[in-house]
Amino acid sequence: MKIKQPLTRITTGGNAAQRFLKMVPPEHDKAQAALDGIVSAGHRTSEVIDGFRALFAKSDQRQQLVDVNEVIRRAPESMSSELADHHVEPRAELMSELPPVYGNMSQLQEVVSNLLVNALEAMATTSDRNRVLRVRTELRGHNTAAVLIQDSGPGIDKDRLDGIFTAFVSTKPHGMGLGLAICRMIIDYHGGKLIALSDGKDGASFEFVLPIASMDRDSARAE
Fold it and tell me: I need a surface site. Which of 31, 98, 206, 207 has the fewest CB within 10 A?
């Protein structure tokens, strides 16, 4: 889904590390930072591959009780170097004791990671305001968990909002337009809904909702 981005970071980081080590004297701190970025990007690449495998491999469609807050916590941790590089301030508001959902952990992690990377890229050209990435979880009614991811980028034209979930339609010059389409496919598979909201000038918000798991495992699977 987003495999090109971390692979590009690995290549860029490797070139930078070589350059810093060849300096006289070598700049070991900068080389170490570049290597840390490579390790982080490697982990993200692995997560992307796992997401594809979980989505398309019939043998890996296992579902379990999933803590949505834990999914949210893991994604920014694996992207800490990217957040720092883009000068983005993450702000998380996670509802305590949010009931679990029933789903595939790898697939849901891939959705969150993809939405966060989209937010970072959307803010890359922002220079007239602070770059803030807000992530919030909340309970909707009695049976739905919601995740909201909001950036402070330029926003998305209202006329293009629904079309961004269509395969091979991208808002980025070099994007393939598959990420958001697969994200919506995953959320639909989980019985939820993924939407985008924007006024076209003050950032964009992506929101997905998932049904809360029944306390009875078999009932949750049936639902």
Answer: 207
DSSP the chain: ---HHHHHHHHHHHHHHHHHHHSSS--HHHHHHHHHHHHHHHHHHHHHHHHHHHHH-GGG---EEE-HHHHHHHHHHHTHHHHHHTT-EEEEE--TTPPPEEE-HHHHHHHHHHHHHHHHHHTTT--SS--EEEEEEEEETTTEEEEEEE--SS---GGGTGGGGSTT--SSTT--S-HHHHHHHHHHHTT-EEEEEE-SSS-EEEEEEEEBPPSSHHHHHH-
Give the predicted TM-score (pTM) of the model. Answer: 0.66
**Tens digit of each residue's pLDDT (9 = 90 or more) over 155-176:** 888 777 777 877 534 444 433 3
Comparing CA positions, the residue from 101, 106, 100 lying closest to residue 60 is 106
Those residues with Cβ within 8 angstroms of residue 117's Cβ, 6 or more apart along the chain or in another chain: 2, 5, 79, 82
pLDDT digits 0-9 by tens, 64-103: 899 999 999 887 777 777 788 878 888 889 999 899 999 9
